[in-house]
Input
Amino acid sequence: MNYDVIVIGGGAAGLQATLTLARSRQQVALFDNETNRNRVTEESHNFITRDGTSPAKFRAIANEDLSRYPYVTKKAETIATIEETGEFFTVTTEGGSMYTSRRILLATGIQERFSYEPIRNYYGISVFHCPFCDGYELRDKALAIFASDEQAILHLTKLLYNWSTDLAIFTNGVKLDQELIQPILDKNIPIYSDSIKNLHGDSGRLSAVELADGSFASRNGGFVVPEYVRNNTLIEQLRLEVDEQNGITTDGFGRTSHPRVYVAGEMVKNASSSLLVASTEGTMTASMIVFDRANEQFHA
Ligand SMILES: Cc1cc2nc3c(=O)[nH]c(=O)nc-3n(C[C@H](O)[C@H](O)[C@H](O)COP(=O)(O)OP(=O)(O)OC[C@H]3O[C@@H](n4cnc5c(N)ncnc54)[C@H](O)[C@@H]3O)c2cc1C
Output
């Protein structure tokens, strides 16, 4: 079967896009390999009607919504390659199955890299990246900030100060420019620039940071500034234009430099956002697909 649209990535952006497409009577195939970024956490917050819902429940509700529409085919498979032949795209899964469509929507998200890899053992349980998502749950606790870039540290420290004034910064061996971080020094927020030797805690709940000099700083949770990467080469395979910041060039509505390839969610800017923002982008981009297709058909 030839689908109208193949959506690759069933996180917040792809799920919402699929709903909009299905309600617009587009035959959609949705591919997802369950590596949604928030899978490591217990609860999602700051999404009205879904505040406190687990990521698994969020997806279950989304899939229930989609199951009401006969236009949706869901596949729990990883797309490895995309090829364009004339008016059609052929996507091939890691298992070698092939599917075709006239349009593609990429919503494959991003993944984190940490400068100190063991942070991953605490990530999503007591260490997070987004104060709007998890700051409230960590309010007034003794918090670690794991970051090594002055601007990022300044930004996150000022913001986090809203939730807790008991902050300590861990740069993992990076010496900071004192002038740039003067506002932090003025607040007497401790900065540990030794390398991190170990993190201590139980079942992902951070209790202390051990430094290379053997000292311990007790902390009950924290925030980290990860590096973000797209986890596949699909945009390179499709030769999509990217800007100087490695964001995919769009018209602001999810249309890319290829007239039949669209994008939504965190992969677009290669930067973190939120469930609500990603799903908003999903519905917006899907609406553009429907509009472009309707326009094409009306004039055919
Ligand atoms: C620890 C943590 C806590 C968070 N807490 C909150 C919160 O409380 N509130 C909030 O609003 N946001 C929260 N977020 C952020 C939220 O998870 C993201 O903003 C949101 O998931 C982005 O949606 P997306 O659709 O762009 O990407 P994702 O949700 O990451 O979805 C991308 C999807 O693409 C699929 N995929 C990728 N490559 C392929 C491929 N080749 N083939 C098939 N499928 C593929 C993956 O399986 C994945 O499901 C949190 C994130 C983390 C890491």
